[in-house]
Amino acid sequence: SLLSASLLGIDFANPLLNASGVYCRDVAELDALAASAAGSLVTKSCTLLAREGNPEPRYYATPLGSINSMGLPNAGYQYYLAYAQQHDYAAKPLFLSVAGLSLADNLTMLAAIRAADTPAIVELNLSCPNVPGKPQIGYDFAAMTAMLEAVTQAYDRPFGVKLPPYFDIAHFDEAAAILNRFPQVAFVTCINSIGNALIIDVEAESVVIKPKDGFGGIGGDYVLPTALANVNAFYRRCPAKQIIGCGGVTRGEHIFMHLLAGASLVQVGTALYEEGPGIFARLNDELAELLTRKGYRGIEEVRGKLRTL
Ligand SMILES: C=Cc1c(C(=O)O)[nH]c(=O)[nH]c1=O
């Protein structure tokens, strides 16, 4: 139909899902996403052991978006694997986001996920900007290469990677060259939050979140142009992979932009946090109205059709 999407040969009723980390930490939230108009859902990035995460306040929203330094609060990988085992895949696909604090932790979690033989699709989070003292794998190309070499040995199914935003053409080139060495990396999700930003409250003359002296990853309107650039940069450089867009979506036309840039699916973070799962019905309606007005019969006709001048 008009909004039908496809990833890894799997059918999706529409291209929309949550961004990992937003509205997906416990069964109640995940069930709400499963019951929503989203075409699929992804779990909160998990670690080997459950984590409390950083002290609050650790999320704050402004009229232009959000800042967070959650610190990977999650129930541990077995909780999300158990959720995946009971999920109704006939209703909609499900993604498991994995963000081990070490290569060894990732290998342990992926071995367990593989052994469970679940239909869930793995999204390996290579960028967790808010765990103090831990560098971003996505910004350490040697570590990223080592991680992918080890993971592709341990996990023999197609999977995807969640990348931080890049801002330099040479970095797009280098990151894509690494990813293209691994055909098993079947999709790339761009972008994670733009890391280590600082939002200031003038009234209080203060930062707005407690961890890291107020430094945190930003999302929302602040990041849309950067998200679109990363989607298109990897779409152009990785022709054998699919792209999931993430960043700055609050309206149907933003989804259309991500599709033009090359996205197959589109994730919603900040706007979902602020509006709740009802946003997916609104966004699907807005996207359908835009496609119809423009005379498109399906999103496949839009993907990657961005014109240059
Ligand atoms: C995995 C941790 C992440 C977090 C977090 O848990 O602090 N926040 C983000 O914006 N992106 C992440 O990837």
Shape: globular
Radius of gyration: 18 Å
Identify every distinct bound molecule in the structure, by name, code or SMILES.
Answer: the ligand C=Cc1c(C(=O)O)[nH]c(=O)[nH]c1=O
Record field, number of beta strands: 16
Q: How many structural domains?
A: 1
Examine the secondary-structure arrangement and name the CATH architecture.
Alpha-Beta Barrel
Major beta-sheet overview: 8 strands, parallel
CATH fold description = TIM Barrel
Question: Kindly, what is the distance between the CA atoms of the first and last residues, rounded to a whole number of angstroms?
Answer: 31 Å
Structural class given helices, strands, pairing? alpha/beta
* CATH homologous superfamily placement: Aldolase class I
Mean pLDDT over all positions: 97
Continuous helix count: 9
Helix percentage range: 25-40%
Helix-strand sequence:
EEEHEEEHEHEHEHEEEEEHEHEHH
Would you state the CATH class?
Alpha Beta
Query: Can you list the strand order of the major beta sheet?
Result: 3-16-15-10-9-8-7-4
Structural features, described:
The chain has 309 residues and is an alpha/beta fold. It has one domain: TIM Barrel. It is 34% helix and 21% strand. It is built from 9 helices and 16 strands. β7, α3 and β8 (121-125) form a beta-alpha-beta unit. The protein is globular, with a radius of gyration of 18 Å. The two termini are 31 Å apart. It binds the ligand C=Cc1c(C(=O)O)[nH]c(=O)[nH]c1=O. Residues 21, 45, 68-72, 99, 125, 127-130, 192-193, 217 line the site of the ligand C=Cc1c(C(=O)O)[nH]c(=O)[nH]c1=O.
